[in-house]
Amino acid sequence: DTAVSQTPKYLVTQMGNDKSIKCEQNLGHDTMYWYKQDSKKFLKIMFSYNNKELIINETVPNRFSPKSPDKAHLNLHINSLELGDSAVYFCASSHRDTNTGELFFGEGSRLTVL
Amino acid sequence: AQRVTQPEKLLSVFKGAPVELKCNYSYSGSPELFWYVQYSRQRLQLLLRHISRESIKGFTADLNKGETSFHLKKPFAQEEDSAMYYCALSTTSGSRLTFGEGTQLTVNP
Fold it and tell me: 3-class DSSP state for residue B41?
């Protein structure tokens, strides 16, 4: 049973295109996240949603728009893709009330912009 | 704002040697510290957290508030320990987790 699943795992696209990455968790968590891992393996939070409500929105270009249709899903849509968007995007989830700090990660979606 | 620093991007040791991955943090409140690990072709996962004071896969980490450090240690490294290790900090005010830059550990045979 996959706890946090992301699709697609790999995405190669041209500059200027619009693409989406989907994330689903079946852990019953109420909080979901998007992290970006750059070429130097640096992990940086982008967004966090709690019960479909945006609670963390880091300084991310507004070309990135997260959408949470329900608390089990958090999708990431990227408009007008740029070369610098190439990275691995990780979805994660946690239960906010317990606040143990343990995040459960997906396997990542490697985006390559040509 | 909180910050986590891992000064070594790459660390290479031989099997059986002790290993220490350094982590320093800055945060004015009471932080919770964690180590996450990413093995090759696997997802990032929690290794240990300071409040548990546990040893996982032979690894331990002690929170030193005076030095604002949370170094990860193992007395005898194994080849299967080769992975990317991230130190992370969570504040008491919420569920935001701030990661360090990561240290790629390679254990040579």
Answer: coil
